Amino acid sequence: MNAKKGVIEVFWTNVLWHMENKNIKMSDLVNGKTTAAKNKTANIMLRRVQEIADILEIDDYAILFEEIEPTEENE
């Protein structure tokens, strides 16, 4: 069982998953915070959350709060 993740970690986990599955570059989503984003520690403003959700073509609520369940493929 996994320890409960914080909202920032869930957000970046979801962003990275969608980014990889939709072939979107990290540089299209963040400006200079690529290491922190990849480490799932970058702080982010709510306005930018909406912008990233729009780029990824997903609901902004889902990207923040709905943890993607690991599968054998993405574990």
Automatic annotation (TrEMBL):
Protein name, entry field: Uncharacterized protein
Originating organism: Enterococcus casseliflavus (Enterococcus flavescens)
